[in-house]
Amino acid sequence: MQSEDAVKSVKTLLKANQPGGFDCPGCAWGDEPDAKKIDFCENGVKAIAWEATAKRVDRAFFARHSLDELRLWDDHSLEKSGRLTEPMLYDGVDNYYRPVSWEQAFSVIASHLNQLNHPDEALFYTSGRASNEAAYLYQLFGRAYGTNNFPDCSNMCHEASGVGLTRSIGTGKGTVIMEDFEKADAIFVFGQNPGTNHPRMLATLRKASIRGAKIVAINTLKERGLQRFSDPQSPKEMLIASSTTISQQYFTPKLGGDMAIARGIAKRLLERSETDSSAIDQAFIAEHCQGFEAYQAVVKATPWEVITKQSGLSIEDIETMANIYANSKKVIFTWAMGITQHRHSVATVRELVNVLLLRGNIGKPGAGACPVRGHSNVQGNRTVGINEHPSQAFLAALDQRYDLTTPKKAGMNTVESIRAMLDGKAKLFIGLGGNFAAATPDTDRIYKALSQCDLTVHISTKLNRSHVITGKHALILPCLGRTEVDHQASGEQCITVEDSMSMVHSSRGQNDPASPLLRSETAIVAGIAQAALGNEQINWKALSDDYSRIRDEIESVIPGFKGYNQRIEQGRGFHLQNLAAERTWDTPSRKACFSDDPLPQCLDEVSEDVLTLQTLRSHDQYNTSIYGMDDRYRGISGERRVLFMNEADIENLGLSDGDKVTISTVSNDGINRNVSGFKVVNYQIPKGCIAAYYPETNPLVPLESVADDCGTPTYKSISVRLTKE
Ligand SMILES: Nc1nc2c(c(=O)[nH]1)N[C@H]1C(S)=C(S)[C@@H](COP(=O)(O)OP(=O)(O)OC[C@H]3O[C@@H](n4cnc5c(=O)[nH]c(N)nc54)[C@H](O)[C@@H]3O)O[C@H]1N2
Ligand SMILES: Nc1nc2c(c(=O)[nH]1)N[C@H]1C(S)=C(S)[C@@H](COP(=O)(O)OP(=O)(O)OC[C@H]3O[C@@H](n4cnc5c(=O)[nH]c(N)nc54)[C@H](O)[C@@H]3O)O[C@H]1N2
Ligand SMILES: [Mo]
């Protein structure tokens, strides 16, 4: 990708992830405790340059291009058009967006909100880039207005981690901090492609590997970045063109096979413990855990044949993993979408925790559970109340602080929101960031759902699909990006974010805003709230004039933020207390809970000509933002409609490398879901499993196909058939 404003980008980069600078909008990996001057990565550079583009989508652009025309553009072309510059309104009369003033835009939203039959007809979506300040104000506004409808990108992302961890150990967040990676004896990386999606994590793994820690990768694909890595910040290594072997062991299971792997490791450990009492941590289990006997029984009852069949690995493979695990005193498990986007994600997360608990690997230095988050502040958004299932204690705290009567009934998650729009039960959609139309499943139905709304509103930096799939009326509200100076009535503001290690720190943009008419996300939310509810009960204007006041509010409502404004001034910020990391279990039994779920049945149901599709990211994209058409590590250039397939499957289906195929979903709901023009690429991937990029494949994912207990679309396991074109 070209950086269209190179000088600005370089200046900006030097401030990435540095105290006093801004938090890289790329990913949620933590900052190195001893970071040198430079702490960014190739893909962070892309994210920053993408935001700092010199191109503009202004009123002339919208006058030139009708909505009908823009709907024909692909995602890459839409976003590449540049930064949005002023509020735009589509009033449903003709085919164009037209400029409006901010005050008009706010009053359109307020009058629509005031006309709804019930506050639950409104949906308040959040993508995980919003700051803590904007997100807190947004949820406060939604609840003061009267609904808990806060669908968010987490519902499609790490929801299973939150649900599974909460049930098992009483906190929905990871239990490790960056320093633990310096102490671990072994690190197991499940279902994650850090080379592309969390490149700074590779530097952490590389350091651990050099120090002698064992790195074990478990991934359906042989991801290059996970195998070998040369540090772009180490000139010596670059000069001699050497690279460090990252993963000493690499296993390629079938899609969805990780629960079986974890079960197999547990089975080996329990077998070993019959003759070697140190194979499991008996003292930890006795003191801290409940449900061990039931778990032991379910592990015993799981036959090896099922474990090897579901995982696609041999007993020897699993034994190798079990040995590394048992021979290491301190072990970290990390994971991402390869674990969370399956039907049985919650059960899998809990099974990973079971294995950690067996050897006391939670709540000691160098060990723990690490779900590696996606969006740079998705974890912070949840912490400050973006949650369709808020706790009653949180709602009570809001009621007390603001003299409100917030709704106590749970709201709708992402998939439920889509259904409500389709059923006419939700009529107004506001998106604080993100690209709802492209990121969600079952594309045809999403388009229908959004277009049935009375009003769709998007607070965004760049033009995307969601802006052109409009409701009867639509607004685009352009906002400042993370890298830009945020000036409010009280002066220049900083915002705060929380990374995957629960570190909260401040972020301050350096660049001039892309347009003088942009407003900050916080100011936009406050503007909507003021127009809809007035300033009497909550003074939205005063809060957005000075973000330190919002932080004071957060401090008074949410535990763990004591001294918020002072503590973000210090170095790299502060760590939010994590009870599980201290071996205090906030579960009903006050113990860490073993789960005893059976292995999933859905994996046994596959028939011969049906393949399982996972949808994933290329190296040149950030979710639905497509930076370019290459996927360097996987050897793809200039195209995105590719289908990675095993050689045997290609042959069995009478196909050849390079053939074009149509992919069709197998379902029994009578809906045809197809995408066409996909080029077959012979690839090292287990038989029966195939892979293609998101969001091109989202039309294939049935809305009803969601993970048990958490509603995440099963983006990594869709049953499909192929037809040669
Ligand atoms: N540059 C860049 N950075 C990003 C993003 C981006 O799009 N671009 N997105 C951000 C977001 S929101 C997120 S959530 C994260 C996503 O980070 P990842 O989870 O790394 O993203 P995916 O591309 O979905 O990759 C899933 C990985 O899991 C493997 N996998 C899939 N299914 C299975 C399985 O059943 N078992 C095992 N063991 N492996 C499996 C795939 O082969 C692939 O390597 O990255 C964040 N960072
Ligand atoms: N098939 C399939 N679908 C998936 C996934 C998958 O693996 N496979 N992954 C899922 C996951 S993990 C996630 S997190 C979701 C992501 O879903 P979303 O978070 O909804 O989507 P993004 O593509 O990250 O959103 C990109 C848009 O955000 C806006 N934006 C960028 N920066 C800012 C900012 O600073 N402020 C504001 N207000 N707007 C900004 C820009 O306009 C840009 O077009 O997608 C999910 N969908
Ligand atoms: Mo994500």
From TrEMBL:
InterPro entries: Asp_de-COase-like_dom_sf (IPR009010), MopB_CT_YdeP (IPR037951), MoPterin_dinucl-bd_dom (IPR006657), Mopterin_OxRdtase (IPR006656), Mopterin_OxRdtse_a_bac (IPR010046), Prok_molybdopt-oxidoreductase (IPR050123), YdeP_MopB (IPR041953). Its cofactor is Mo-bis(molybdopterin guanine dinucleotide); [4Fe-4S] cluster. The keyword Amino-acid biosynthesis does not apply. It comes from the Bacteria. Keywords: 4Fe-4S, Iron, Iron-sulfur, Metal-binding, Molybdenum, Oxidoreductase. Pfam families: Molybdopterin, Molydop_binding. GO terms for biological process: cellular respiration. One of its GO terms (cellular component) is membrane. Residues 611-717 form the Molybdopterin dinucleotide-binding domain. One of its GO terms (molecular function) is 4 iron, 4 sulfur cluster binding. Residues 83-460 form the Molybdopterin oxidoreductase domain. Belongs to the prokaryotic molybdopterin-containing oxidoreductase family. This is FdhF/YdeP family oxidoreductase. It comes from Neptunomonas concharum. The lineage of its organism: Bacteria, Pseudomonadati, Pseudomonadota, Gammaproteobacteria, Oceanospirillales.
